[in-house]
Amino acid sequence: MSLENKNTDSEGINASHKKENAFENIKYLIVGIFFGIVFVKAEIISWFRIQEMFHLESFHMYGVIGCAVVVGLISVQLIKKFNIKTLQGEKIEIQPKTFNKGQIYGGLLFGFGWAITGACPGPLFAQIGTGATVIVVTLVSAIAGTWVYGLIKDKLPH
């Protein structure tokens, strides 16, 4: 199936066409809980660790991010080399990315938000789960920002 035939705005190029019922989706809940526990134990959700990173006082978060980048690079190369399929048995298509200056602005905005709130989207739910309920404000703000971007993205220079 070609890229033109898929709605990449809502589902992405690799979205599965197989529908799962609510019980089959429990595996995603289990993986999410596991990742939340790992985030807490590795102190990835710690506001103090994030502030240390942005103040260049500690290598901890840079090490975690660097390891994630290396694992991602190796994973993509393995997917390409061995033609690995999704859990549903469908082909994984990795589309080439083109650079545009909006990525710089978006990255800066993301980084500023991360530095100010001490939270990036990945660990928000783990932070809330540990009792840091003030992070709900960050979660609602992230959802609102995504919604606003969806409204104005056609007017932005991409």
TrEMBL record:
<keyword id="KW-0812">Transmembrane</keyword>
<feature type="transmembrane region" description="Helical">
    <location>
        <begin position="28"/>
        <end position="48"/>
    </location>
</feature>
<keyword id="KW-1133">Transmembrane helix</keyword>
<dbReference type="InterPro" id="IPR007272">
    <property type="entry name" value="Sulf_transp_TsuA/YedE"/>
</dbReference>
<dbReference type="Pfam" id="PF04143">
    <property type="entry name" value="Sulf_transp"/>
</dbReference>
<protein>
    <submittedName>
        <fullName>YeeE/YedE thiosulfate transporter family protein</fullName>
    </submittedName>
</protein>
<feature type="transmembrane region" description="Helical">
    <location>
        <begin position="132"/>
        <end position="152"/>
    </location>
</feature>
<keyword id="KW-0472">Membrane</keyword>
<feature type="transmembrane region" description="Helical">
    <location>
        <begin position="104"/>
        <end position="126"/>
    </location>
</feature>
<feature type="transmembrane region" description="Helical">
    <location>
        <begin position="60"/>
        <end position="79"/>
    </location>
</feature>
